[in-house]
TrEMBL record:
Protein name: 4-alpha-glucanotransferase
Annotated stretches, region: Disordered: 64-93
Biased composition (Basic and acidic residues): 72-85
Length: 93
C-alpha cells in the first residue's frame, strides 16, 4: 500500500511547526488569477531530521493505520492486517 500525506498535515502534528499565519499556508488562491500554486516550507530538513519526536509520531501513525512496509502488520491487527476491536484485543471476543 502506498500512503501519501500532505506535508502541512504532518507538520501540524506538532505545535512548534504551526506558528505561521494561515494566509501564508495557502497553496493556491483561486479567486486571484495572478496567484500561482506555491508552498514554501518554513522548516528546514535538518530540523525535521533532528526532531525525533515528530518522526516517532508519524511512524506510529503510519504503523498503527496499517500503512507501513509490506509484511509488517499494525499492532492490534489480525493475520490479514484487519484491525481488531478493543474487545477482540482483550481476548473477550
Amino acid at each position: 500500500m502506498w500512503a501519501i500525506f500532505p506535508l502541512q498535515d504532518l507538520l501540524a502534528l506538532k505545535d512548534k511547526y504551526t506558528t505561521r499565519p494561515a494566509p501564508e499556508e495557502t497553496i493556491n488562491d483561486p479567486t486571484n488569477p495572478k496567484h500561482y500554486w506555491r508552498f514554501r516550507v518554513h522548516v528546514t530538513l535538518e530540523s525535521l531530521l533532528n526532531d525525533k519526536d515528530i518522526q516517532a509520531t508519524i511512524k506510529d501513525l503510519v504503523t498503527s493505520s496499517g500503512r507501513s512496509f509490506p509484511g509488517k502488520k499494525a499492532e492490534g491487527a489480525d493475520e490479514s492486517g484487519e484491525k481488531l476491536s478493543k474487545v477482540q484485543l482483550n481476548g473477550k471476543a
